[in-house]
Structure formats: structure tokens, C-alpha cells
């Protein structure tokens, strides 16, 4: 059995990764269960797991030690995030299960979160470690393997037509690291386009009263919304390998981004600008908007093909099964 362990109060990049991971494991006829540290009322992922027939449980419903002590050497616990990883390492001292820990945080943390992330890093000698991007990998003090984010491929491929009015989106946490302030600035420069924001966070005040934006708030899933977008804009100051970029490309949405994290590995140069020159994203919006119908559809198809060849769950399974000791 593979247990995906996380402490999660909302839906973001880690939760999207866990969703894709659980679906991939399930598709290979391997038993999988998502284990939450505690229950958060209204969490959108609970219904998503239910709809996909993926079992889940909450450690807060009974003593945590009872769950971990029940595991055998054939069981795998794959922890995500600092809290789940630190806790699982402690219990690994009491039971013989195989422990995998994934590092997801691409941004520089401060205060209490920075302390916990350092504790996570310096206790990592107690687990087999994975990082979702090369920059995150290079920061780890102990042995760590690169396992880039992925999405289950969609087939058959279909080139996505653009809207008559260009639809530009931001997906993620409304924070300085993700560059929501930059997105707002860019939206003011392109009144000919319609700008959308999907997400919530500390800087929600920047978008709540912005007339040029349509703010959708935090959504339970982007699946029904990708068809409404032509471009996903990622003006981030720091990233790992954002799941939103992979999902957008898998749905034929063009991604324009700053050159941070593993985005240069994912995107071609004509879709990237240096982080310090983020204003040049405005030029890329104009360039993409000027593409004719044929060129646009070719670009959309190219992005989908790249996901299938290099960032699909199918392309990751051999590595995962080796890490989990399933083969």
C-alpha cells in the first residue's frame, strides 16, 4: 500500500501534485490512500478524491501512533510538505515502513515557516528524499533525487483555438512570491484583453476592487476553467515547477513566465523573460496575441505534445515504481 501523507488546509500546488500522483498510482493497480494530518471543513480535495474513488483518512480521528505502528516494511509512506515529513520521520523510528519525502517549496520562506523548512531539510537523512525542481534539489543538505511534477496526459490531442478577445489568467496563491502585484500591473497595460484571477491569499485586496480583473476566488479545480483561458501568466519571483503550468499546457493554454525555478526547463525561450525584467511579459502578450489562427493552434499543440513526452505521469512511472520498490 502507498500512503500519501500531507497536512493540507486548502487546494494548491502540493494538493494538485498529490491528486495526480494518486490517480497515477491507482491507474497502475497499486493500492493508494491519501492520509491527512487533520480534517479541515470544506476542503475541496475530499470531494475530488471521493469522485475518483481514492480512499482517504484523517490521523486526527484516532491516535497517530496507532496508524504508523500498524504499517509493515511493504508499506510506503510518501510525505509532502514540512509538517508531514517531520512527523513521518519521527514515526519511522518506531515502525519499519518505507518513507519517502518530497520537497516542494520553491520560494524563500521567512519567520516560523523558514525555521520549520530548515528543520525539514536537516532531518531529511531519516528519509528517501525527492525534489520537484532542480533549484530545490540543489538546496538540500542530504541526498535527494529529482522527480519533477507531472500531470496525467490527455488524449487525443486537440489544438486549442483562441478567443476573439484574448483571455489571460493567473492561477495560484495571491502573494508577493507568485507576483500577483505584477499581474495586476500588466492587466492595466492590456485593456484589450480580459484578465482572470483564480486563487486567494494575503494580497487579495490587490484584485478585489480592480475593474480590469475578473476574480474567481479559490476554485475546487481548474479543469472546467482551462477552456476559458488562452494564456496563463506566471510573473513569479520564485517557483519550483508549478503544477498550474503543466495543467495549462496539457490543456493547450500558452504559458508565459519569468525565468525562475524549473520553468526554463519546461518552456521555450519565446515564452520566458528574466525575473528582473518581468515587465517584458507585456511584449510577449502582444506577440502571442498577434499570432494568426494557424500559428496559435500549432503553438497550443506543441505545448500539449511537450507535456506528453516529458511531463506526463506515464513518463514518470518507471522512476516512481523504483523509488517505491514496486518492481
From TrEMBL:
<keyword id="KW-0808">Transferase</keyword>
<dbReference type="Pfam" id="PF13439">
    <property type="entry name" value="Glyco_transf_4"/>
</dbReference>
<dbReference type="Pfam" id="PF13692">
    <property type="entry name" value="Glyco_trans_1_4"/>
</dbReference>
<protein>
    <submittedName>
        <fullName>Glycosyltransferase SypH</fullName>
    </submittedName>
</protein>
<dbReference type="InterPro" id="IPR028098">
    <property type="entry name" value="Glyco_trans_4-like_N"/>
</dbReference>
<feature type="domain" description="Glycosyltransferase subfamily 4-like N-terminal">
    <location>
        <begin position="11"/>
        <end position="120"/>
    </location>
</feature>
<dbReference type="GO" id="GO:0016757">
    <property type="term" value="F:glycosyltransferase activity"/>
</dbReference>
Amino acid at each position: 500500500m502507498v500512503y500519501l501523507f500531507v497536512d493540507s488546509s486548502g487546494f494548491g500546488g502540493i494538493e494538485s501534485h498529490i491528486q495526480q500522483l494518486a490517480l497515477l498510482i491507482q491507474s497502475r493497480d497499486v493500492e493508494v490512500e491519501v492520509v491527512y494530518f487533520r480534517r479541515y471543513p470544506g476542503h475541496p480535495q475530499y470531494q475530488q478524491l471521493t469522485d475518483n474513488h481514492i480512499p482517504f483518512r484523517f490521523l486526527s480521528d484516532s491516535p497517530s501512533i496507532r496508524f504508523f505502528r500498524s504499517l509493515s516494511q511493504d508499506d510506503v509512506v510518501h510525505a509532502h510538505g514540512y509538517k508531514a515529513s517531520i512527523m513521518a520521520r519521527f514515526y519511522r523510528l518506531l515502525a519499519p515502513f518505507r518513507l519517502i519525502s518530497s520537497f516542494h517549496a520553491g520560494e524563500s520562506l521567512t519567520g516560523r515557516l523558514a525555521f520549520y523548512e530548515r528543520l525539514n531539510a536537516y532531518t531529511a537523512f531519516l528519509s528517501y528524499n525527492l525534489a520537484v525542481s532542480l533549484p530545490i534539489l540543489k538546496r538540500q543538505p542530504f541526498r535527494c533525487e529529482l522527480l519533477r511534477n507531472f500531470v496525467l496526459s490527455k488524449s487525443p490531442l486537440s489544438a486549442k483555438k483562441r478567443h476573439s478577445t484574448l483571455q489571460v489568467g493567473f492561477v495560484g496563491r495571491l502573494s508577493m512570491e507568485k507576483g500577483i502585484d505584477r499581474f495586476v500591473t500588466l492587466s492595466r497595460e492590456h485593456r484589450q484583453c480580459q484578465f482572470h484571477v483564480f486563487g486567494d491569499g494575503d494580497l487579495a485586496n490587490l484584485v478585489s476592487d480592480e475593474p480590469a480583473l475578473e476574480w474567481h476566488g479559490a476554485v475546487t479545480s481548474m479543469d472546467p476553467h482551462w477552456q476559458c483561458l488562452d494564456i496563463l501568466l506566471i510573473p513569479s519571483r520564485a517557483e519550483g515547477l508549478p503544477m498550474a503550468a503543466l495543467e495549462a499546457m496539457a490543456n493547450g493554454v500558452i504559458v508565459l513566465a519569468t525565468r525562475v525555478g524549473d520553468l526554463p526547463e519546461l518552456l521555450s525561450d519565446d515564452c520566458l523573460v528574466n525575473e528582473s525584467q518581468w515587465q517584458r511579459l507585456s511584449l510577449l502578450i502582444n506577440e502571442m496575441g498577434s499570432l494568426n489562427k494557424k500559428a496559435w493552434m500549432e503553438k497550443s499543440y506543441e505545448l500539449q505534445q511537450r507535456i506528453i513526452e516529458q511531463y506526463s505521469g506515464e513518463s514518470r512511472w518507471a522512476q516512481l515504481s523504483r523509488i517505491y520498490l514496486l518492481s
